[in-house]
Design goal:
mainly alpha; Four Helix Bundle (Hemerythrin (Met), subunit A); elongated
């Protein structure tokens, strides 16, 4: 049997239920909802203990007291004096709240508990969530601690590598992370500023590499072409992309009232600029 059939159930192999789900973009089916909750339960909520041996279920004296306060005050925006006194009741209410959440609120919730990093579970949560998101064919993955609508592992790797590689260059990493933030805001995505931040990351990097803080991107690319053997075709491609950000829809100029920029535009620019960042940094090392 082919390797790609090994994960299928009997019903899927017999063609009785779909072998591959339609990508879940603006919805979460029960299998995905349950699977995400299982990750929360197993990774995040399983390490509870109380310092009060006489009242082991008392939340206030437990290692989850701060977690509960942060969740209530910063995520639910609820009064902290309404937090249940007991761990068992807190979990019950948390579970009920979770299963009433809309699809985007669910993603906001799991992103939030990753950010909290309670008991250093952030990375384990990301690993568990990404495994589930891939298996259930969600359109989202965690990239650098944020959920983003990118399903290709290669695309994810380019962005994460760009963030990691650019740590030594002031501003570059910030621009990429900011672009990612604008792109992944589920309630108010800002594609225009995401594109602006992506190309600003490339501008900032090229200025660092050529040692001229006032250089334009086009001028910096010319220097890279000579000093770092940047291929003319690649230079031309990025010059064209830079021209796109200057001319298309007024991104770098006065904002237009009716924007036609899409998530695809911002996603494409973030991936391209991340890939160029990795290429340029790697080229200077070789």
């Amino acid at each position: 049997m082919p390797d790609n059939m090994n994960h299928l159930s009997f019903s899927q192999r017999m063609g009785l239920v779909p072998a591959i789900k339609v990508a879940q973009v603006d919805s979460i089916d029960p299998a995905l909802k349950n699977s995400l909750w299982n990750v929360v339960t197993i990774v995040c909520l399983s390490g509870y203990y109380s310092r009060d041996r006489n009242y082991p279920d008392r939340l206030r004296t437990s290692n989850f007291s701060d977690f509960a306060e942060t969740l209530y005050s910063d995520f639910h925006k609820a009064a902290v004096d309404t937090i249940p006194s007991y761990w068992s009741k807190f979990k019950e209410i948390l579970r009920e709240s979770y299963y009433k959440m809309s699809w985007h609120r669910t993603y906001s919730f799991i992103e939030f508990i990753v950010t909290i990093n309670h008991r250093d579970t952030g990375q384990a949560l990301i690993d568990g969530f990404n495994k589930v998101l891939a298996r259930e064919n969600s359109a989202y993955r965690f990239v650098a601690g944020r959920l983003i609508q990118i399903t290709s592992p290669d695309e994810i790797e380019e962005i994460e590598r760009a963030i990691a590689n650019s740590d030594q260059y002031a501003g570059v990493r910030t621009h990429i992370q900011t672009a990612l933030g604008f792109l992944t805001d589920k309630l108010n995505p800002d594609y225009r500023n995401s594109i602006k931040e992506s190309i600003s990351a490339v501008e900032s990097l090229t200025k660092h590499l050529v040692g001229n803080p006032s250089a334009t991107l086009d001028g910096a690319l010319k220097v890279l072409e000579k000093s770092h053997k940047l291929h003319p075709a690649l230079k031309k491609a990025f010059s064209s992309l830079y021209g796109y950000t200057n001319d298309s829809d007024g991104i770098r100029h006065a904002l237009m009232e009716n924007s036609e920029l899409t998530q695809a535009d911002a996603r494409f620019m973030l991936i391209c600029c991340s890939a160029f960042t990795n290429f340029a940094i790697d080229s200077t090392k070789s």
